[in-house]
Write a structure and sequence with these properties.
alpha/beta; Rossmann fold; 6-stranded parallel β-sheet; 8 helices; 14% strand; globular
Amino acid sequence: MDNNYKYKYKYIVIEGSIGVGKTSLATKIAKDYNAKLVLEQFAENPFLPKFYKDPDRFSFPLELSFLADRYQQLKKEMINPDLFYSFIIADYYFMKSLIFAGRTLEDDEYNLYRQLFLIIYESIPRPDLYVYLQVDTNKLLENIKKRGRDYEQNITADYLNRIQKGYFEFFSQNPNLRFLIIDVNELDFVSNQNDYQRLLDTIFSFPCNLGMNRVKIEK
């Protein structure tokens, strides 16, 4: 990869469904290119294990707690940029809160949640590049099972499909942002250095326009 490309974007988001490897990729890029790493602190959320066991009961407090946690973290990390880093890379974007809430909350709860979200959203910086890693649902389920988090083992294919649908609705409704949707079904960018390098080349070199830009990386 041409090292000059890493300065093309100052704020990059790596997103994707549960189990796609977004945190692993963001962490590797931050380490290799002196980027400031912003990781979602989901493991500390006390409502998450409860939600997977009883989603009807705990979906609203879960989404509210995520909303507050993400806002506080991004406000802290983004408002005062660190000049010692070449760019910022995060494994989530604030809009994730609304995407998941739209798939987990009842209509009346969602309408209230959305009002609160939109008030906060106006103060959140927009990314220069939003990378969405796309993987087939069956592979996501395999990855979730492999990493062995007890509270994730009840996640269903239907739930993952609904979350992915929510992401694509967000993409289509926000043509003023730059989305790079990458099919990584055939890549092992966590363990295979060549696959990782090809993914980097795509992220930093692909000529992205505003709106949705799609690319598939094949073996």
